[in-house]
Amino acid sequence: MDFKVKIGFPEPMGAKCYGEYVNFAVAVGDGETCSLILYQKGTTKIVAELPFTTEMMYGNVFAMAVYGISAKKYDYNLRINNVIVTDPYARMLSGTSVWGETNDEDITSVIVDEDYDWEGDRPIGNMFEDSIIYRLHVRGFTKHTSSKVKAKGTFAGIVEKLPYLKELGVTMIELMPAYEFREVEMNTPSYVISDTKNINYWGYTTGNYFAPKASYASKGNKQGQIREFKDMVKACHRQGIEVCMEFFFPNDVNHTFMLECFRFWVREYHIDGIHCNISDSIKSLLKSDPVLGRTKLICYDWNEEENSSYIAKSVSFKNLGDCNDAYMITARKFLKSDEGQINEMAYRLRSNKNKAQKINYISNNGTFSLNDMVSYERKHNEANGENNNDGTEYNYSWNCGFEGKTRRKKVMELRRKQIKNILTFLMLSQGTPLIYAGDEFLHTTEGNNNPYCQDNEMSWLNWNLLKKNKEYFDYIKMLIQFRNEHKILHMKSEMKIMDYRSLGLPDISYHGSRAWYLDGNHLNRHFGVLYCGDYGRTDMTKNEENIFVAFNMHWEEQNFGMPAPGKDKVWKKVISTAGEVKEDTNKKAQLIKEITVAPRSVEVYVSVTGKRK
């Protein structure tokens, strides 16, 4: 078949339809040859091969306009130096719709030519400090039969669970890699067991970064993965929930390619956030990019010393997210009563960069889940087939006296309390909390801290646990509501430990067995925190509640000195991880000067107006 070709345009990269013709722009290395291979739609039957000529070059970009072809009739690939490859800028792939059965020889790039009605949708723009992030794996979130969704393991499955996420209090979902990564690993060590050896379940590998993952789209969706992903984003936005995409790039990735990828997803799919393993060399480029100026950019360790004029102007909308393990490690150490953790934990509670929002979490992939961090002291990764040699060796965990599952009442009760303790740490700390999917109903991977290849019920969320462990769902939900009601718990900038507004109290202060005295001795395991609510006041005509939190991670009960709650105020206990808080029926409240907190427990008090005894 003859096709009419002309010199094309070098931008945008990839395939772009323009009515009578399709423009193909391909970046190549110096001296490399390239040709365009056209296939019969949905097959690997080659219809034509069209070579790029030197006249079609713009620098190192080949550009060809091909007339007389239709997106409905043809797919394509590229032959570069006699090797057939998919287009790295392809917006959609064919031959990848069945999870775990992808063969590189069957994959072709798809010419996309369709409109989508966003119905006025725009990225939401929630403030970072007001956000609650829920991190999930698209397939594992609803793949289990207990999820009760129609489109299990898909973008549409997430939509079916939006009422659940809304009830919990989530404001952003973060998707682990959901672009076209290769889940089938061809080069796998021979000692890996047969039923998992070929699966890269998490997706931390290279792929086609501009294309949503076809196997994450429901089979009954004739519109394909592009439309289903957009439908998901639009549905999330209608519920006030933002969407963040995680990307994984090799260390030598071209910076321009990465920037083009991020801009594309923000423009084409209306995503609100990007989480990526980016190097220091590209951070300045990304954080000063005006197109991404209102997109949440999450990575490890933004450097605040690098201060561009653009960042200085944009600090009113903080869009940089600083994500690292420091909070998790400190919280886990303090939880299990390690020595010398008071000063470090006190710092983590208030830590929050002025221009980069701290992202705090207590569990994540690559370490124990919330349930497993109080149930296991050693990793149990035998199912991965690597002789338990994979995964991090130390998880800063404590099994509460028994390794693994148990029915021992004392162990179970201690674990119950420890789970609530660390959840309270998380939700009462500055920064943005991140919940790892399934932690709210105690999903377990049975001590496997690296289930990267476990595409089975070990990784899939078992929603039957929600009914069994609804107590923890309700507890997290309550903590999120409490956090939302008190602005002082989620300030935009780091607290100063000073009375810089002459309110009579510092914004945050620390206490111990005596009020206004923090004992940082390495043997100490308890301290109190006072948040002055008026520092978070938005309505200047209304005073806000002060909050006092007593953290006792000692195995014995401890006394706390209570600072004064304020003029005409008394302290009211509202949260206790040691047991249910009973309503005080006394008409007059007692002015509390000291409290005794049970072993390994947290208590929360708020200042309320009341007559004193």
Provide structural commentary.
The protein has 613 residues and is α/β, with parallel strands linked by helices. Helix 8 crosses helix 9. It has an eight-stranded parallel β-barrel. Strands 4, 5, 8, 9, 10 and 11 form a six-stranded antiparallel sheet that branches. Helix 7 links the parallel strand 18 (296-299) and strand 19 (320-323). The chain is built from 13 helices and 28 strands. The relative contact order is 0.08. The chain is elongated and about 90 Å long. It folds into four domains: 4-110, Immunoglobulin-like (Sandwich), CATH 2.60.40; 128-178 and 213-322, Glycosidases (TIM Barrel, Alpha-Beta Barrel); 324-494, TIM Barrel (Alpha-Beta Barrel), CATH 3.20.20; 508-609, Golgi alpha-mannosidase II (Immunoglobulin-like).
In DSSP terms (H or I, runs of 4 or more residues), the helix count works out at 13
The percent range for strand residues is 15-25%
What is the average per-residue confidence, as pLDDT, rounded to a whole number?
A: 92
Structural class: alpha/beta
Short description:
With 613 residues, the chain is an alpha/beta fold.
Summarize the helices and strands and which ones pair or pack:
Layout: E1 4-7, E2 14-18, E3 21-27, E4 34-40, E5 46-51, E6 57-58, E7 61-67, E8 74-80, E9 83-85, E10 93-94, E11 108-110, E12 133-136, H1 138-142, H2 155-160, H3 162-168, E13 172-175, E14 179-181, E15 207-212, H4 224-238, E16 242-247, H5 255-269, E17 273-276, H6 280-287, E18 296-299, H7 309-313, E19 320-323, H8 326-335, H9 342-350, E20 356-360, H10 370-373, H11 409-427, E21 432-436, H12 464-468, H13 470-485, E22 508-511, E23 526-531, E24 547-552, E25 558-561, E26 569-576, E27 594-597, E28 601-609
Parallel strand pairs: 12-13, 12-21, 13-16, 16-17, 17-18, 18-19, 19-20, 20-21
Antiparallel strand pairs: 1-7, 2-3, 3-7, 4-5, 4-8, 6-7, 8-9, 8-11, 10-11, 14-15, 22-23, 23-24, 24-28, 25-27, 26-28
